[in-house]
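Weekly modeling sync, notes
Attendees: S.R. (lead), two postdocs, one rotation student

Agenda item 3: backlog of single-chain predictions. S.R. asked that every request posted to the team notebook include the full sequence so nobody has to chase files. The rotation student volunteered to paste the first one in as an example of the format we agreed on. Action items at the bottom.

Example entry:
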Amino acid sequence: RAQPLVVRCGAILDSLNTLRGDFQIAGLWSHEETGNAWSYHRDLAVADWCREHGIEWHEIPQNGVIRRLRTRNGWARRWDSFMAEEIVAQPDALSPVLQVENNHLPSSQDLGLEADGCVQRQQGGRAAGWDSLNSFLTERGEPYRTAMSSPASGAVACSRMSPHLAWGTLSMREVAQTTWSRQRELKQAIRGSTGGWRGALTSFTGRLHWHCHFMQKLEDAPRLEHQNLHPAYDGLRPEMPYAERLAAWERGETGLPFVDACMRSLAATGWSNFRMRAMLMAVASYHLWLDWRRPGEHLA
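Predicted structure, as returned to the notebook:
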């Protein structure tokens, strides 16, 4: 759109102070995010910085998560209403900010990250996101209701929208409205000619709600990242070394064939279906008696 992406890498307040030294900042605009404790405390620091310098900060909601929600009664209706709003059109052109020096997009090595061994990971980008959504809604998704349970069939029959929603290559509103459009087509089709499509997409729209509802739980109770849901579980697992069991679980070397196959598939593809993630955590927490926080960090 005529304005190149400008990349800055570093502590957020350092970057903001540099920009403020070079430009007159009229306002700060960002996505509204429900993240973990690290991103929450970062945002608190940014809010303090904006107040200190008299800069108004605009956070734009990106999904169905609602901040400062008093009760979840009626939450699903509010989700539907938000997703039904008109999609904002992208601008034809932007006036480029020519004075800004553009740094390169940092590589994983630049950021000090380990090499990515995920050889079969999904392709990123907006075009790949649309291709995946359209193929799910018209080709792959008919057996979704039953196939989603299996790690093998689920890899094909599930939408594979999770990374695109996480990184914003497609918005939840785009996915929801495209799905609703497909459902209207199926509703107008001759009775008996739609196979399992109607049921599949009904289940899929429920999962789109789930995507935001689980984040809503973290928004409402951020302690869930670090604390047990029920205090009865506090201190249940003894404080003892368990590095060997954790490493075996991470590498897919527990000796439980189904568990190990799912872990090795996750390492190779970066993806696992919902029910296998639940199974992997259940085995880690109960069979191997690991504190849930460490296995959770590995899956993340």
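Discussion: group reviewed the output briefly. The first strand starts at residue 27 and ends at 31.
Action items: rotation student to repeat for the remaining queue; S.R. to check formatting next week.
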